[in-house]
Structure formats: C-alpha cells, structure tokens
Amino acid sequence: MKVVFTLVLCYLGMTVAIRGRDEFNLIIPYVKFSRYDQVQQNIILDTSVIIDGRVIDLCQTKFIEGRLVIPQFVLKELQQVADSADSLKRNRGRRGLEILKKLQDLQRVDIKIHDEEFPEVPEVDGKLVKLAKVMDGRVLTNDYNLNKVAELQGVTVLNINDLANALKPVVLPGEVMEVKVVKEGKEYNQGVAYLDDGTMVVVEDARRFIGQKVQVTVTSVLQTSAGRMIFGKKDSAPYYRDNRRGKNNGNSSNQ
User: Nearest to residue 58, comparing CAs of 186, 195, 160?
Assistant: First the structure.
C-alpha cells in the first residue's frame, strides 16, 4: 500500500508540474486548485470566432482579460478547412491560421494550446462545452447554435455578435440611408446591400439597381444573436436624411 500510494502521489505531482493545473482537473474533475489572491479566467476560442478575426481587436482594446485557450481539436478543424478542395473554405481556414499567428504576436496576450481531445465526444461543439466545464472557463464564439447549446448546459458564452449589436448605432424605422445594392434577394424583386460593418440590408423593389447606390427608407430592424438585419424600401426622393430632417424642421417652424 505504501508503494502504491507513493507511485500515485508521484504521478499526480509530475502531472501538475508538467501539464499544469487545468490538465490535472481532467484527471480528477472534482479537485481543482485555485488561488484566492489571483484568479485567471480561461477564455476558450472556437473555430468560427478565430476565422472571424475580431478577437484581435478585442485583445488590442483590452476588453478581454484572462488567458486565451486554443483547443487542439480546433486547430485540427482549422487545418482541415485550410486544406479543403473548396476555394472559399480554404481561404477561410487560411485566414483563421493567420489570425492565430497575429494573436501569438500580440504583447500582453496569454495564449495556451490545450492538448485534450475528448475522443468520446464526436462533435467539436460538444468538445468545447465539455472543455469549458472542466476548466471552469467561458467560450468565445459568434456561432448561434453553439451559443444556445452552451447556455443550456450552464456554460458562460461570450458572443461577439451580441457585443457588436450592443455597440452599433441604433437605426430607427423611417430613417434614410444610402447603400449599394450588390445582389438580388430571396424574395421577388428584392435587392441586398451591406453596411461597412457587415450588416445586411434587404431592400424592396431594388433588384434592377444591382451595382448602384440607392436611398433606402428603413422599415424595420431585426436583431438576433446571429446578427442584425435591416429591412427597407427604395426611397423615391433624391435627398439625404439630413436634408429631410431640415425640411421637416422648416415645415414645423412655419406651422
């Protein structure tokens, strides 16, 4: 018994020394080491948020505090996407690898590659949720489905789309904006445009104006965790919002 007890303690001591506190939690999940004077928050990145790239801006503005954890299975998924025969997927995968390189080059950003694979869990989203539970960390993502799955299992999620939506200037129905129609929409005679921040603008009766800039009157705004969509119709009047407001103010003053 003494020999067995000694070997077990030696093994656990070597694990803590070589692999670290978080991997020790994988061996004995209910035993966790923590310091009361300093607690380091683990933020686990998924594939979509790496490819998105806005995590670099968050790190540079110091809105994220803690250690960024890159799971090994996320790296493998990025590599598979980068080696895809589809050119669009291949470019997205390579962009993700470039973003990781830029993150490593940032100063004062603590990044760790986590080696645990969780072979018993087939889905990458499931692996991320389980790793977050084991490490008592949070998941940084912009994937709507992963957001919901993680919340159902009690894992804290940092959704970049939610943050972006909270910081966007509010667009109210009735306002006028100028956009460039780039493609046709799903419904008949619709045109689709995009704002500088990537927000989709669906314009009624604008299919024939593809490739042109048009004035659009906002009719409604749909905001979800997956992003924001603006619906509007082509404005027949050739003036801007400021001019319209000026005229309205003038009319009201005359009245």
Answer: 160
CB atoms within 10 A of CB 57: 11
**Rounded CA gap, 121 and 134, in Å?**
14
Residue 167 has pLDDT above 80, yes or no: no
**Residue 133 exposure: Cα atoms within 13 Å on the Cβ side:** 15
Are 126 and 119 within 8 A, CB to CB?
no
Is the pLDDT at 243 greater than 50, yes or no?
no
Q: What is the pLDDT of residues 39-81, one digit of tens each?
A: 578 999 999 999 988 888 888 888 888 889 999 999 999 999 9
Say how many CA atoms lie within 13 Å of 101 toward its Cβ. Answer: 7
d(CA 215, CA 201): 12
Distance CA 130, CA 119 (A): 12
Domain architecture of the chain: domains with CATH? 17-32+39-165 (3.40.50.1010), 176-237 (2.40.50.140)
What pTM, to 2 d.p., does this model score? 0.57
